[in-house]
Amino acid sequence: MPHPKTAEEMIKCAGPIECELLPQLLHVTESAAIAASYQMGRGEKNYADQVSVESMRRMLNCLDMKGIIKIGEGERDEAPMLFIGEEVGTWEEDVEVDIAVDPLEGTNLAANGLPGAIAVMAMAERGGLFHGPDIYMDKIVVGPQVVKYEKEHPDEIIDLDAPVRHNLEIVAKALNRSIDEIVVVILERERHEEKIKEIREAGARVNLVSDGDLMPGVSTAIRGSGVHMVLGSGGSGEAVLTAAAMKCLGGKILARLVLPSVANGKSAEKIAEERSEKMERLNSMGITEENINDVLDTDNLVPGNDIIFSATGVTSGPILRGVSLFGDGDARVHSITIGSSGVVKFTDTIYIHDKERNALRF
User: Fold this and answer.
1) Which of 28, 93, 104, 361 could link 59 by a cystine bridge, Cβ 3.0 to 4.6 Å?
2) 252, 348, 246: which is closest to 297 by C-alpha?
3) Is 161 helix (H, G, I), strand (E, B) or coil?
4) 3-class SS of residue 316
């Protein structure tokens, strides 16, 4: 009798989306990352985003699936984005998937040659991903050790509305650390000044990032990453993508939709103006005045069971190396793919265009 955690048993647990589409999803994020890498450091963030979107769309439309973008970078009229509701794939096969996408997470990072830009995507069965607007989500992300601690101590639960110290104490206990050893990643934004102050007053350490808190969120589930918690408000698409990885890795995210004007402390007039502009669109997605403030957990954001996630580095970060270009179209890329079966792969891929002219580089 094979041990239930052997590779063959885990592979047998993989769903059809993981089995059929995860290897191809890797190529989708790799192609987008390579396209963006040619614009790295050129200071043109919109064009870098555009070429990664176009590459990702072309690759997605080669996949034998019926895909719908459920949460992405923008609405239908915001070209060249992969817009919410866009249909991708050949639509010739029966595999139906919902998609969360960010062709270039960290456009400023890529444009300025800074660490941490990635191309990233997640898929699940139809109805398996949160269908929401491209606004903000206030969130907290922690790893599987914290989830385990919560199960063992049901009176000590991470709470999006609790003081920062409350959550830090739970994370510290779960990781068997003191609070002053905990590292919290948060976007460097004016709206986060109070949270940053609370983190430091509690004794924890702050890792400010200018852009791109998605991979730090995933990193909370990777031992040795040096990231123990992610806090703050950012894009809703990034929150759903983080949730997809967290569900596969056993971590946890709590999030709440928030209008950018509210998150950024704008005037009552500006908040009313944005609410008037966006509530009709939100209502069409089932988001109303009554439920917009609901706290969403990992299962709310990713209710599906057959989930796949892929991220490829554009510029080097703590988890993924950036694209290396060798000339003549050759490139080396580093990616992480995750399936709900529990299989995680770090993939080092080399693309060689002219095999006679260019030897394989090790």
Assistant:
1) 28
2) 252
3) coil
4) coil
Q: Per-residue pLDDT tens for 314-359?
A: 999 989 999 999 877 789 999 999 999 989 999 999 998 877 777 7
Answer whether residue 36 shows pLDDT above 80: yes
Cα–Cα dist 85/98, whole Å: 10
Q: How confident is the model over 38-57, as a mean pLDDT?
A: 95
User: What pLDDT score does 347 carry?
Assistant: 96
Nearest to 119 by CA among 129, 130, 109, 133: 109
Global confidence as pTM? 0.93
Tokens of 244: 């997809």
CATH 3.40.190.90 residue ranges in the chain? 136-301
Please say whether the beta carbons of 29 and 335 come within 8 A: yes
Architecture of domain 7-125+305-351: 2-Layer Sandwich (3.30)
Contacts of 188-194 spanning 24+ positions with Cβ under 8 A: 189/232, 189/233, 189/264, 190/264, 190/265, 191/232, 191/233, 191/263, 191/264, 191/265, 192/231, 192/232, 192/233
CB atoms within 10 A of CB 47: 15
Q: How would you label 127-164 residue by residue, b for 16+ Cβ within 10 Å and e otherwise?
A: ebbbbbbbbbbbbbbbbbbbbebbeeeeeebbebeeeb
H helix intervals, the chain: 7-12, 16-37, 45-60, 107-111, 144-152, 164-174, 193-202, 214-219, 236-249, 260-263, 268-284, 298-301
CATH 3.40.190.90 assigned to domain 136-301? The reply is yes
* Matching residue, tokens 């063992």: 152
Q: What does the pLDDT read at residue 79?
A: 47
Structure token pair of residue 333: 């890329």
| Residues present in the chain in total | 362
Residue 197 contacts residue 164 (beta carbons within 8 Å): no
Of 290, 261, 294, 266, give the one whose Cα is nearest residue 278: 261
Burial class (CB in 10 A: 0-12, 13-18, 19+), 83: middle
- Give the pairing of strands 205-209 and 183-187: parallel
